[in-house]
């Protein structure tokens, strides 16, 4: 069997949308056909803006390695969480968001009930085995009218989708490569996270999971955390 056949056999078919809540939808396999092109596009992005482990305002180093593309990138450091138009490591603008990223996110949002989504930010998360993301809300965007579109690539993960309070017990979903989660409207501020990643080997990404989180962030002048 040639490799192309092997890959197409592994490629999941898109499935009917599954409702996770009001405004929240799991689109299994939605990005499967484009998964290889998405991963291929990451090479030039991470060459210009390498993955790094950011530090939280509380001084904890995140287990997930991150970078960004698009007009605004989500960053964290001792000064806080925010969107920045430039990569703080290099001082340069984040790499441009590839058209296939932007357009796939728009199509997924529409499939989740949010027409007209135009992401200006893509956070790229890399999970190695044991990396996790604790329950949190995405609340640095300044405007919550746009949904969040989250694409999974490579190793599977357990996604935690909770309620409006951190203490609400989350639902757990296994996310495979090519799966997309969209949430907005009534669940835009839902707590969510990712359980510690199990080790494995993906034909697409090797020993890691990659997640692309698309959002629409308000572009304000880069705020410089005050030093006093
Ligand atoms: C995130 O909330 O930023 C990441 C979610 C995921 O990795 O699926
Ligand atoms: Fe998030």
Structure explained in plain terms:
With 228 residues, the chain is of the alpha+beta class. It has one domain (17-215): Jelly Rolls, CATH 2.60.120. It is built from three helices and 13 strands; from the N terminus they run H-E-E-H-E-E-E-H-E-E-E-E-E-E-E-E. The chain has helices spanning 3-10, 35-48, 99-111, and strands spanning 18-21, 24-27, 65-70, 73-77, 80-84, 121-127, 133-136, 148-154, 157-161, 171-175, 180-183, 192-194, 209-215. The strands form three sheets. It has a seven-stranded antiparallel beta sheet with strand order 1-2-11-8-13-6-3, covered by helices on one side. A four-stranded antiparallel beta sheet has the order 7-12-9-10, with no helix packed on it. It starts with a helix and ends in a 13-residue tail after the last strand. The mean pLDDT is 93. The structure holds succinic acid and fe (ii) ion (FE2). Fe (ii) ion binds next to loops.
Features:
single chain, 228 residues, alpha+beta, Jelly Rolls, 7-stranded antiparallel beta sheet, 4-stranded antiparallel beta sheet, 13 strands, 29% strand, binds succinic acid, binds fe (ii) ion
Share in helix = 10-25%
* Unreliably modeled segments: none
What is the architecture at the second tier of CATH?
Answer: Sandwich
Structural class: alpha+beta
DSSP strand tally: 13
Compute the average pLDDT.
93
- Beta-strand proportion: 25-35%
CATH class assignment: Mainly Beta
What is the topology, as strand order, of the major beta sheet?
A: 1-2-11-8-13-6-3
The CATH fourth-level homologous superfamily: Alpha-ketoglutarate-dependent dioxygenase AlkB-like
What would the principal axes of the Cα set say about the shape?
Answer: globular
Oligomeric organization of the protein chains: single chain
As for the number of domains, it is 1
**Count of alpha/pi helices:** 3
Q: How would you spell out the order of helices and strands?
A: HEEHEEEHEEEEEEEE
Small molecules (ligands, ions, cofactors) in the structure: succinic acid, fe (ii) ion
What name does the CATH topology carry? Jelly Rolls
- How would a crystallographer describe the biggest sheet? 7 strands, antiparallel
N-C termini distance:
64 Å
